[in-house]
Amino acid sequence: MGRGVTGLILKAMRADDYVFTVLGAEAVSEHYHRVRFDGGEFLQRNPWFPTMWVRLWIPKSGTATTDEDAGDLAQRGYTIIEPEGSEFTIEFAIHDGPAPRWALDAAPGDRIAATMMGADLTIPEHPAPSEYILVGDAASIPAINSILGTAAVPCRVFLEYQHDGERDLPVHADHVTWIARENRGAALVSAVLAAGLPSDAFLFVVAETRATREITRTAKRDLGLAKDRIKSQAYWLDRG
């Protein structure tokens, strides 16, 4: 019950705990939802940077909010966007899971526990990247948008979609290459690798586990991208 083994590990690593209060929520589309929070001292103690994310402790029932360790909780990571003072927004891709169910029911005044454990985004400076290549799907649009909003070099964006409506989600790029999810992510992998990855680019990959690993592995092994020019994190696992 409570936060389980993950919570114990984070506590041992001296992760910081917070409580966020819901200020409002809105549907962006059938498959996307935004929740605005007041984080108290969270942003004061953790200055915002692109791709900044936090762990939310979600009741597995998805139907209640909590700032206590009551009930059976699951932790899910979400990107912090639109920081202003103590407030910020988190966007939820809607699927069958406790976090989306919680987000759909969230109302002003609801509270939820959160944990912050050292996260950063380091981009090489010598030499600076010639371009950013950003790869993901609906779940990683907030992180990708946070990079697009601060990038000083050209960006290429590749996004996988499962529902046609996802292609209407706001992406802050002049052009996005949308790839329908096929063969458990193989279509995304093929599209990204076929487009070419210059050795002086910065590659940011945050997609399904298999696609993320394959793109990252090929970029290092076959295309010559140095480790410090790749940032990758699997956002979810296709168990089908």
TrEMBL record:
Residues 15-124 form the FAD-binding FR-type domain. GO terms for molecular function: oxidoreductase activity. InterPro entries: FAD-bd_FR_type, FNR_nucleotide-bd, Riboflavin_synthase-like_b-brl, SIP_FAD-bd, SIP_fam, SIP_rossman_dom. It comes from the Bacteria. CDD domains: siderophore_interacting (cd06193). It holds the Pfam family SIP. This is FAD-binding FR-type domain-containing protein. It comes from Tsukamurella pseudospumae. The lineage of its organism: Bacteria, Bacillati, Actinomycetota, Actinomycetes, Mycobacteriales.
